[in-house]
Design goal:
The complex is a heterodimer of chains A (about 425) and B (about 260).
Chain A (H helix, E strand, L loop, with lengths): L4 E3 L9 E8 L2 E9 L6 H5 L4 H7 L8 H16 L5 H32 L12 H22 L8 E2 L2 E2 L5 H26 L14 E5 L7 E7 L4 E3 L3 H4 E4 L8 E4 L9 H8 L5 H10 L10 H26 L14 E9 L2 E10 L2 E8 L1 H19 L5 H14 L4 H4 L6
Chain B lengths: L4 E7 L5 H7 L4 H5 L2 E6 L12 E7 L2 E3 H13 E7 H6 L11 H9 L8 E5 L9 E3 L6 H12 L11 H8 L46 H10 L4 H9 L8 H12 L1
Parallel strand pairs in B: 1-2, 1-3, 3-5, 5-7
Antiparallel strand pairs in B: 4-6
The chains are: A alpha+beta (about 425), B alpha/beta (about 260).
Chain lengths: ~425, ~260
């Protein structure tokens, strides 16, 4: 008789989920990621509501990537009503987005992942032994939060990004200060990269993975795009995603699972961005990528950790450039008037943990249809596949060891479980 | 309190923003020197919901039958229970839909599919257990946590806030978004403590800290002002319900304004 191995509540991830591994005579028979976070019905609750109010509510899907939700929802809404923001507004929105990226990556790498590698149950108990790492984590995290404070009004659930631009813009001195802080943070990001380059990538979960990421606008590695690139060479316009990403309800989860062309699990993440768009990197990140590309093989989910560290370096330099571009046009107007007309808009962006899509249909100034698919929902099927691979290779291990390894696979994906359970309309 | 204080952070259905805000305060490192974490899944693998604690922080709204059991257990294990943030205190934005039926919401999102858990309409924690103290906000401000925790650590009891965001906004000298720009700002009825964060960016308050208790939250006078600005009753209720869907007096007070005018 076999007792299933279960992790009731996976620690150090955002949201509530569990892992269930069932063994039989032939080895692992069943692997399930149980998403037990309650359902939150974000699409359903915002249907029929005023657009501006719905836009204030969408970021509440998730605190770890609220800026990503806000900015993706905003772009979908603006596309729906036929409005295109000025270049400098787009640049500042990207800086706000990068604030989220920096905060989220720093938090994931240092506070959620690193304790496993160093043998701790939580990051706070690492302080005596690893003071430097905790200090770097807080400095990077605080930089990202402060960028979101300045441009978004706060680090979690930003209200200052609105239709047409921003409620209020920071003054020139504050943007110059932001640039200086970003410059100071660059060596910390490089330290992070070197640190994670030494971490073990478990070969047990190595194999082919289909990666999806946006084809970035302007051919510069970034967050916004109008096409999706698949690592098998296929490319499709964002409006056609329903043909290629199919969601299914699964019984053990409040979150749907997504499949590429109807059946194949796929991955979205920092390593997916690197897999599909590495040639668009520039600056120090490009040099690091050339030097370490053997460690950044997109065939292993554990490389996502190192890919996030590389992105810390990249996005810090990118934000400096975007601020320079904006300052060159200073002073700028914070917003333009947006006429609300009926329409439908699709926006795909690169959230810290991978592709995020919003489709909004606007009728009479209200949301008539909403479809949101989050990175974690897209990743769940692939994540289960990798937990299974790990479990199969370690089926004879002590349960505690197997639990830890299974959790580490899940954590490498940086799942955002709260995000995944708003769940999409079928 | 003598010795190390035992704390637990428990998540119900939420965005995890309250915990994130709490975990991300630099000051937490000093404060937690005085504390043992007994349960806090977001940052500690060695967490256990069954351990006794001195202070239990609960984030999120009660949205599954399993969460009903969890809050009851936490109440039994904890000396002080603090409801943290808009979801735990007021049911959160997921309660914005409480004019619809669960079946309807379920069908919109999941179709005819079944899952093995038991969902329910989102509700505040207080609906199921006695809550000793509330920290408002979506998310709460860092100083809300520092004040509450600091006060408990010296053996005292924090005070509740009973004045509105509007007051903080006036003190900052911001132009009035409601009167001067005619936008539906909820500052006059919303619990203060954010230092009028959104109005200071020129954005109308959406009431994320929830309404001050109803004997001082004048939904009716604000509804009258909104009505004069041309908003319909439905528009007013919708806006006031983003974070106050469970408020027992809201509907009655807004209705009054429209009945009187007809």
């Amino acid at each position: 008789m076999y007792i299933p191995i279960t992790v009731d509540h996976i620690a150090r991830v955002e949201g509530k989920g569990g892992i269930e591994i069932v063994m039989g005579d032939e080895g692992v028979t069943e692997v399930k990621l149980n998403i037990i976070e309650g359902p939150r019905f974000f699409e359903a609750i915002t249907i029929g509501k005023k657009l501006e109010e719905a836009l204030a509510v969408y970021p509440r899907i998730c605190s770890f990537c609220s800026a990503a939700h806000k900015l993706t929802a905003l772009e979908a809404a603006e596309k729906a009503v036929g409005f295109t923001p000025r270049e400098e507004i787009q640049a500042l929105r990207e800086v706000l987005y990068i604030g989220d990226m920096i905060e989220s990556h720093a938090l994931h790498l240092y506070l959620l992942v690193l304790p496993d590698y160093l043998g701790y149950s939580n990051p706070l108990s690492m302080i005596d032994e690893y003071k430097k790492e905790i200090e770097i984590a807080l400095k990077l995290k605080n930089l990202g939060s402060w960028m979101m404070d300045v441009l978004g009004s706060r680090a979690i659930h930003q209200e200052n990004a609105i239709l047409g631009g921003f409620g209020k813009l920071p003054d020139k001195t504050t943007l110059e200060e932001m640039k200086e802080k970003l410059k100071e943070a660059l060596p910390l990001a490089e330290y992070t990269f070197e640190l994670f380059a030494k971490m073990k990538q478990y070969k047990e979960v190595e194999g082919p993975i289909i990666h999806m990421a946006v084809k970035p606008r302007g051919d510069v590695y970034g967050i916004y795009g109008d096409y999706i690139k698949v690592s098998d060479g296929f490319k499709f316009p964002v409006e056609e995603y329903k043909k290629h990403i199919v969601e299914r309800v699964v019984e053990h989860s409040f979150a749907n699972h997504s499949f590429y062309n109807g059946e194949r699990p796929f991955m979205v993440s920092a390593i997916s961005r690197i897999a599909n768009n590495a040639e668009l990197l520039y600056g120090r990140a490009k040099e690091l990528y050339s030097q370490y590309r053997d460690l950044l093989q997109p065939t292993n989910p554990f490389t996502n950790n190192l890919a996030q560290a590389l992105e810390l370096v990249y996005f810090i330099e990118r934000a400096i450039d975007l601020i320079d571009e904006t300052l060159a046009k200073w002073p700028i107007r914070p917003k333009d008037e947006v006429g609300i007309r009926d329409g439908r808009g699709v926006s795909f962006t690169e959230a810290p943990r991978g592709l995020l899509v919003y489709t909004l249909e606007i009728k009479d100034g209200r949301v008539a249809y909403a479809d949101i698919i989050t990175p974690t929902a897209m990743n769940l099927a692939m994540m289960e596949h990798h937990v299974r691979m790990m479990a199969e290779k370690h089926s004879n291990d002590e349960p505690e060891q197997l639990k830890l390894l299974a959790e580490m696979v899940v954590r490498a994906y940086d799942p955002c479980i709260s995000c995944s359970v708003h769940v999409a309309r079928l | 309190m003598a010795g190390k204080i035992r704390i637990g952070f428990y998540a119900l259905t939420s965005c995890y923003g309250c915990q994130l805000q709490f975990a991300m305060m630099d000051e937490i490192i000093q404060l937690l020197n005085k504390a043992n974490i007994e349960c806090w899944f977001m940052i500690d693998r060695d967490s256990d919901e069954d351990r006794d604690v001195d202070i239990a922080f609960i984030e999120g709204s009660v949205s599954t039958e399993e969460e009903v059991e969890l809050v009851k257990k936490v109440r039994e294990k904890a000396k002080i229970v603090i409801a943290v943030g808009s979801c735990a205190v007021h049911g959160g934005v997921q309660s914005w839909a409480n004019d619809k039926k669960l079946e309807e919401l379920w069908k919109t999102v999941y179709g005819d599919a079944k899952v093995k858990f038991q969902p329910k309409m989102a509700e505040p924690v207080e609906k199921y257990i006695k809550v000793d103290y509330k920290i408002y906000g979506c998310p709460p401000e860092k100083k809300d946590f520092l004040y509450a925790l600091g006060t408990f650590l010296v053996g005292s009891w924090p005070e509740d806030i009973d004045y509105p965001v509007c007051l903080e906004c006036r003190l900052k000298g911001n132009p009035c978004i409601l009167i001067e720009k005619g936008e539906p700002c909820l500052g006059p009825v919303t619990v203060a403590g954010c230092d009028a964060r959104c109005p200071s960016y020129g954005i109308a308050c959406i009431g994320c800290r929830g309404a001050i208790s109803y004997d001082v939250a004048w939904f009716d006078s604000l509804a009258m002002t909104f009505k004069e600005k041309g908003l319909t009753k439905e528009e007013i209720l919708e806006r006031m319900k983003i974070f106050n869907a469970h408020n027992p007096k809201l509907e009655e007070m807004v209705n009054k304004i429209f009945e009187e005018g007809e």
